[in-house]
């Protein structure tokens, strides 16, 4: 039985990798330790419903802030991922269990008890499941809609790389408000950062969502500080806009352990501001580019701004 608290068992594929030094974080990247009443209550609801969160599994630096406000990104389909991305702290290997048919209901119940206006649902990759978990995502969306009809739903999905292309329609037909799939990095770094994925497949996935249902907002994100060049980041922005992606997130890569991908550098807040300005100039409806930006950080507030930006653009086009 694996103990996922032990790094060598959590990431067996990384055990033989050389150690990469973890440099000291600069002032702008430091956060307060989690705690407080709100944090404890969110943790209790997650435990009572036997739910996994990406906040914990991926070691997100914003967990204290988000959980204290009752916001948690729920991770469905287990806690073991079939991919072995070198940047990621989620446990990797062959998932020990089948998909839990009762999980969508537990997620919906937790969303209702937390009183969420906006929820983010993500998952591990499940290449061992024929549809990659597409129907499980759809069932979770429908369960939340049934229990909390006023809650807007954002999903952060795998790439469904090894599935029949038709499985994407299953997820789109469930009508999430936001469909997010992260490109994670520039294409030149995929072999070392995201070896199990394909850049243009991920890009096309998001483009297909928009073709299937133009009303769904599409969203994607990348990390910086992995060794990318600035011009490569701008090319990714252009690729995303060509795929009609609405919302871009850019955050600082933080190396989870010495066995993970080496941290190339800490990108300064001024550089993030420059990326944000460039992205808005390229036509994104919404951009979040800060050192601590993560896919679901401030997702509810950002969704409100995203919706307002679309309405403003439509009004301008009509006027």
TrEMBL record:
Q: Is Repeat given among the entry's keywords?
A: no
Localization recorded for this chain is: Cytoplasm
Protein residues bound to [4Fe-4S] cluster 1: 55, 60, 66, 296
Amino acids binding [4Fe-4S] cluster 2: 81, 85, 88
Reaction catalysed by this enzyme: [[Fe-S] cluster scaffold protein carrying a second [4Fe-4S](2+) cluster] + N(6)-octanoyl-L-lysyl-[protein] + 2 oxidized [2Fe-2S]-[ferredoxin] + 2 S-adenosyl-L-methionine + 4 H(+) = [[Fe-S] cluster scaffold protein] + N(6)-[(R)-dihydrolipoyl]-L-lysyl-[protein] + 4 Fe(3+) + 2 hydrogen sulfide + 2 5'-deoxyadenosine + 2 L-methionine + 2 reduced [2Fe-2S]-[ferredoxin]
A Gene Ontology molecular-function term? lipoate synthase activity
The Swiss-Prot or TrEMBL record lists the needed cofactor(s) as: [4Fe-4S] cluster
Q: Which SMART domains match?
A: Elp3
Segments carrying the region annotation (Disordered) are 1-25
Which controlled-vocabulary keywords does the entry list? 4Fe-4S, Cytoplasm, Iron, Iron-sulfur, Metal-binding, S-adenosyl-L-methionine, Transferase
Co-factor: note: Binds 2 [4Fe-4S] clusters per subunit. One cluster is coordinated with 3 cysteines and an exchangeable S-adenosyl-L-methionine.
Top-rank taxon: Bacteria
- EC number, as in UniProt: 2.8.1.8
Pfam families tied to this protein: LIAS_N (PF16881), Radical_SAM (PF04055)
Where is it mostly found? cytoplasm
PROSITE patterns associated with the record: RADICAL_SAM
Pathway assigned in UniProt: Protein modification; protein lipoylation via endogenous pathway; protein N(6)-(lipoyl)lysine from octanoyl-[acyl-carrier-protein]: step 2/2
The family annotation for this protein states: Belongs to the radical SAM superfamily. Lipoyl synthase family.
HAMAP family tied to this protein:
Lipoyl_synth
Record protein name field? Lipoyl synthase
Species of provenance: Roseovarius aquimarinus
- Gene that produces this protein: lipA
């Amino acid at each position: 039985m694996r103990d996922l608290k032990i790094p060598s068992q959590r990431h067996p594929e990384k055990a033989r990798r050389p150690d990469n030094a973890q440099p000291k974080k600069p002032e702008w990247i430091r956060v307060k330790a989690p705690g407080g009443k709100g944090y404890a209550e969110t943790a209790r609801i997650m435990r009572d419903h036997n739910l996994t969160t990406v906040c914990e599994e991926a070691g997100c630096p914003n967990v204290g802030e988000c959980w204290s406000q009752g916001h948690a990104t729920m991770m469905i389909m287990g806690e073991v991922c079939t991919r072995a991305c070198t940047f990621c702290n989620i446990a990797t290997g062959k998932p020990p269990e089948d998909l839990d048919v009762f999980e969508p209901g537990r997620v919906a119940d937790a969303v209702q008890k937390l009183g969420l206006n906006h929820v983010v649902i993500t998952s591990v990759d499940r290449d061992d499941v024929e549809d990659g978990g597409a129907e499980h995502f759809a069932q979770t969306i429908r369960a939340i809609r049934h229990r909390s009809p006023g809650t807007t739903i954002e999903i952060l999905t795998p790439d469904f790389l090894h599935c029949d292309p038709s499985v994407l329609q299953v997820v789109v037909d469930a009508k999430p408000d936001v469909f997010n799939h992260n490109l994670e990095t520039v294409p030149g770094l995929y072999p070392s950062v995201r070896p199990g994925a394909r850049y243009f497949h991920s890009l096309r996935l998001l483009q297909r969502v928009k073709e299937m249902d133009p009303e769904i907002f599409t969203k994607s994100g990348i990390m910086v500080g992995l060794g990318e060049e600035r011009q490569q980041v701008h090319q990714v922005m252009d690729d995303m806009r060509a795929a009609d992606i609405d919302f871009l997130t850019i955050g600082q890569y933080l190396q989870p352990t010495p066995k993970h991908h080496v941290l190339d550098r800490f990108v300064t807040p001024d550089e993030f501001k420059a990326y944000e300005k460039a992205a808005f100039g390229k036509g994104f409806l919404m951009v979040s580019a800060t050192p601590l930006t993560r896919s679901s950080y401030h997702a509810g507030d950002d969704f409100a701004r995203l919706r307002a930006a679309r309405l403003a653009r439509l009004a301008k086009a009509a006027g």
